[in-house]
Write a structure and sequence with these properties.
By secondary structure, the chain is an alpha+beta fold. The chain has a single domain, classed as 3-Layer(aba) Sandwich (Rossmann fold), CATH 3.40.50.150. Helices cover about 40% and strands about 15% of the residues. It has a 3-stranded antiparallel β-sheet with strand order 1-5-2, covered by helices on one side. Strands 3-4 form a two-stranded antiparallel ribbon. The chain starts with a helix and ends with a strand.
C-alpha cells in the first residue's frame, strides 16, 4: 500500500485523490450492532487516514462522501436506509468482508437482523435513516497536493 501511494505521488504533478473508508468510522454504522466481526474485518482492511496523508505528503484535505439512500453499489453502508437488502445473500456477497467471517456466525448475524426487522426493533432504533436522503458514513475523499 505504502509503495503504491509513494509511486502515485512520484508520478503525479498535481493532486492525488483517493476514495477510501476511514477505519475509525466504520464501526459507527448501525450494522456493527448486528455483525460486529464483519465491520471489524472491514475496518482492518483500510489504512488509517493519517497514514495515507503522511505517505502522500503535501497539503491534504479529507471530505466525507455522502452515500445516497438509493446507492446501487454493493458495500454495507449503501444499505443504510434499506436494511432488508442485507438479508439477501447476493447483497452480502457484494461486500467481501462478510466472506471473512465464519458461515455459522454470518447466519446468526443475518437472523438477528431479520428478527429485528420483523419485530420492528430495527425501525424503532434506526428508522429515521429510511427518511434520510444520504448518509455521511465512513466513505471519504482524500485530496493531497504537493507542498
Amino acid at each position: 500500500m505504502e509503495g503504491s501511494m509513494r509511486e502515485m505521488r512520484r508520478v503525479a504533478r498535481g493532486p492525488v485523490v483517493i476514495l477510501t473508508c476511514d477505519p475509525d468510522l466504520v464501526r459507527n454504522f448501525w450494522l456493527h450492532e448486528y455483525a460486529p466481526l464483519v465491520l471489524d474485518t472491514e475496518a482492518r482492511r483500510y489504512p488509517a487516514i493519517g497514514d495515507i496523508i503522511e505517505v502522500l505528503g503535501g497539503e491534504a484535505s479529507v471530505r466525507p462522501v455522502p452515500i445516497p439512500a438509493d446507492c446501487t453499489d454493493g458495500f454495507n453502508e449503501a444499505y443504510y436506509a434499506r436494511p432488508e437488502r442485507l438479508l439477501d445473500p447476493g447483497a452480502r456477497q457484494a461486500c467481501s468482508a462478510w466472506s471473512f467471517v465464519d458461515p455459522a456466525l454470518r447466519a446468526e448475524y443475518v437472523e438477528r437482523l431479520r428478527n429485528d426487522l420483523e419485530s420492528g426493533d430495527w425501525d424503532r432504533r434506526h428508522g429515521a435513516l429510511r427518511r434520510q436522503p444520504y448518509l455521511e458514513g465512513s466513505l471519504v475523499l482524500i485530496r493531497t497536493v504537493p507542498a
